[in-house]
Amino acid sequence: ACSAFSQQSCEECLKNVSCLWCYTNNTCIDYPVRSILPSSSLCSLSNARWGVCWINFEALIIALAVVAGLILVSITVCCCYCCYCRRRSRSRLDEEEEQLARKREERRLQSLQRKHERKLKHDEIRKKYGLLQDSDNPYSRFENE
Question: What is the pTM of this model?
């Protein structure tokens, strides 16, 4: 029982995890498991020690609350940042895809334009040498003179 360690030392009392040391009257008492925090009638939080003797229960609770708050805030920030990055990367990918499609269409139009220019130039050369077929009778035989 924890009461057997009363009037000894805090270290001896806290070797048993189920014990709570109270500095007001130097007593070792059973930790009140049913209530999370020990009641002030049992021992004030600033004078209660649990786990280690060098930090009081009040400071331990505050430190744990701060650490838990920091963890929750960092998780929230990470989740929001990841969601923002995903949304941003999706929009960036869509923009890149649209840009590639525009460039592809521009290249296709330029290719068609060059093809048309080549056809005109070839037709002009054929016309110059009399090789251009008559469009009225495309099946007429070409005769050498």
Answer: 0.49
